[in-house]
Amino acid sequence: GIARALMNGSVEVVREHGKRRITLDTAPEMRAAQALYEGMGFRRTATRDMGDDFCLYSYELGLDSPAPQHP
Description:
This protein is α+β, with helices and mostly antiparallel strands. The protein has helices at residues 2-16, 31-39, and strands spanning 21-26, 43-51, 54-62.
């Protein structure tokens, strides 16, 4: 619950500052984080090759609509 609360707080701060979207990156092995982001409505937009056999998954959340309510 702590990670979701932190993410929800971050989304609200960004909304309060008038931003229209949030983007973030995560490593492929961070499956719990990816599940959290997807459950909050983020969609995966790209895979970025960072070199040296390392990549990042990019996610985006549009903020034009109200935030989904989660317990």
